[in-house]
Each structure stands twice: as C-alpha cells, then as structure tokens.
Write a structure and sequence with these properties.
Elements (H helix, E strand, L loop, with lengths): L1 H20 L4 H20 L8 H15 L17 E11 L2 H14 L3 E8 L8 E9 L3 H8 L4 E11 L1 H27 L3 H33 E10 L11 H78 L1
Parallel strand pairs: 1-5
Antiparallel strand pairs: 1-4, 2-3, 3-5
Helix pairs in contact: 1-2, 1-3, 1-6, 2-3, 2-6, 6-7
C-alpha cells in the first residue's frame, strides 16, 4: 500500500506540474521549470516512503523534465493579459509666498484624488519665515497624471522629475509560481486524505507546510507589487520664500555669470570660516604667547647671570693684580 501511495504521489505531482506549465507565457515557463525541479526534489526527500522507490523517482524526474521542456502553446491565460505592470514615482519642488494656504491646498488636492500622506513634516516657524515642508503622497495610478498637472499650478515649481519602472516580467513570474504552488498543494491534500500510515501522513504534512509557506511568501510579494502599481509615490518639497527664484535659460553667459557668483560666494564663505577659526583659537594663542614670553625671559635671565659672574671674577683678578704691582713697586 505504501508503494502505491508513493507512486501515486509522484505521478500526480508530475501531471499537475505539466498541466500548469502548458498554460503560461514565456515568463511562466521559467517559473514552472523552477517549481518542477523543486517538486521532484521533494519527491526524493519528503515522499520517499521506501528506499526501493529510488529508481522509480529517477524515472519520474526524467519524465517530468521532458514535460517541462515540451513546447508551450501560443495562447496566454487571461489572468496574464491584464496589461503592463508599471510603477510610477516622482519628485517635485515648489516655492511659495503663501506657505500656509498652499500646504492646505496640496493636502486637499491629495485627498480629492483619492490619495493619502504616507509621511509629512514641516520645519520652521511663521515668525522667522523660511519654513519648508516635505510630504510623501500616495496617489491612485488612475488619478496620478491629473494630480501632477494640478499640483504644478500651486506656487512656483523649481524642479520636477519622474521615474517609471516596468515590472510586468517580475509580476507574471510571481503569479506563475503561485499558480504552480497552489496546484501542488491541491495534489498533496488529496494524497493526505488517502494516507493510510502515520509515516506517510507525516511526510505529506511536512511537504504541505513547505508549500503553504512558499504560497504565503509569494502572496505577500504580490500584494507589495500591487500596492506600488495601484498607488504612485509622489515626494513633494515646499519652500517658503519672499521672492521666487528666477529660472534662466541654460546659456553660456548665464553659466559663466553663475560660476563667478558661486566662486565669490565660496570665497566669502572661506573668509567667514577663517574668521570663525581665528576667534576660536584666539584665547589659546594669547595664553601661548604669554607662556612663550615667560620661557624666553627665563632663558635670557639664565644667560646673563653667568656673564655677570664672569665680569665680577675678572674685576677681582684685576684688583688683585693691581695690589701686587703696587706692593712690588714700594
């Protein structure tokens, strides 16, 4: 009976994987090949109820491989033909003279398009001016273009960029793996219902747990991809200004003038930094000068003392010699 269950398990899994592989796109084919290799490996480890079945599993692997490598039909499943899977994300920087009014307008615009703030922050106070805000908005993909057109009318847009990522291949691959795993799970559950020994039941349950874990993992991946596809990400930076930045044409003269301005600004910044450094080190410099003066004074003082002693000795010698000369003359 155990031999029959093992054979049935191998045949059902191989047949299930073959039926799954015949209905997908070229991306689905790679996913089916991946899952077939995993299922045949599982047959050798989890469903190997008897060592005598080793040769049978080897034959089953060869048959399964031939089925996976068989030519695919040209038709594509309807669930894989829902259009391209595109993720949109953009960044926009805005200057405004009416900070309070415009950040309210942006929030209303996000809400009116069915979106929401994923994160938001405001820095600065109205008293001193120069406030700025950062928002990360999630906008439904169907309303994304309308939102971008409308938000550009608020304040003065200084920069804007957009990134587009086509994840169709990855999305279809995850779908194919999920379909294959669910088919595998159904086959294992059928075998579980017909298991007659505890050993067979435990082996099948182990395989079911592994397959369920993989299903949960791929399902979570699919949900993350769906969220990124359904809701576009828009990063908005708002600056409070007194006058709007003039947007000039990118000509040689403008770049030349801008380079001179940047150079002078950098030089002024350097001088300011130098003054700050001097102010920082000035107290230490004063103390250092005082200490150096004391040391030099002590060195000079020690140097003059021996000279005075030498002069005194010379004077004494001279006086002594003079006394002797006077005595001799008398």
């Amino acid at each position: 009976m155990r031999r029959r269950i093992a054979i049935l398990l191998a045949v059902l899994l191989a047949t299930g994987m073959f039926s799954t592989g015949c209905g997908g796109t070229s991306d689905g084919a790679s996913a089916d090949a991946y899952d077939m290799s995993g299922s045949t490996k599982a047959l050798e480890s989890g469903a190997g109820f008897d060592s005598e079945l080793g040769s049978f599993y080897a034959d089953t692997n060869e048959i399964a491989q031939e089925q996976v490598e068989a030519p695919k039909e040209e038709s594509v499943d309807s669930e894989y033909t829902t259009g391209r899977k595109i993720i949109y994300s953009s960044n926009i920087s805005i200057e405004t003279k009416n900070f309070d009014e415009d950040i309210v307008a942006i929030k209303k615009l996000v809400q009116s398009n069915g979106g929401y703030y994923e994160s938001s922050s405001i820095t600065g106070t109205a008293e001193y001016g120069g406030r700025y805000a950062n928002y990360t908005a999630r906008i439904p993909s169907a309303k994304y273009q309308a939102f971008m057109d409308s938000v550009g009318d608020i304040g003065s847009v200084t920069s804007s960029d957009e990134a587009v990522e086509d994840i169709t291949s990855n999305y279809v691959d995850v779908q194919a793996r999920l379909k294959s795993l669910r088919t595998k799970l159904e086959r294992l559950q059928e075998l579980e219902a017909n298991a007659e020994t505890v050993e067979d039941l435990l082996n099948i349950e182990d395989r079911i747990n592994d397959v369920q874990y993989d299903i949960e993992n791929y399902t979570a991946q699919l949900k993350v991809l769906d969220d990124k596809i359904d809701y576009c990400t828009v990063s908005i930076h708002v600056d409070e200004v007194i006058t709007y930045t003039e947007i000039k044409a990118d000509t040689f003269w403008n770049r030349f003038v801008e380079a001179i301005g940047d150079s002078l600004s950098g030089f002024v910044t350097f001088l300011q930094g130098l003054v700050i450094v001097i102010v920082y080190i000035l107290p230490y410099a004063i103390v250092g000068v005082i200490i150096a003066g004391i040391v030099l004074f002590m060195i000079k003082k020690k140097g003059t003392a021996p000279k005075k002693l030498h002069i005194l000795k010379k004077d004494k010698t001279h006086l002594s010699n003079s006394g002797k000369d006077e005595t001799n003359s008398n």
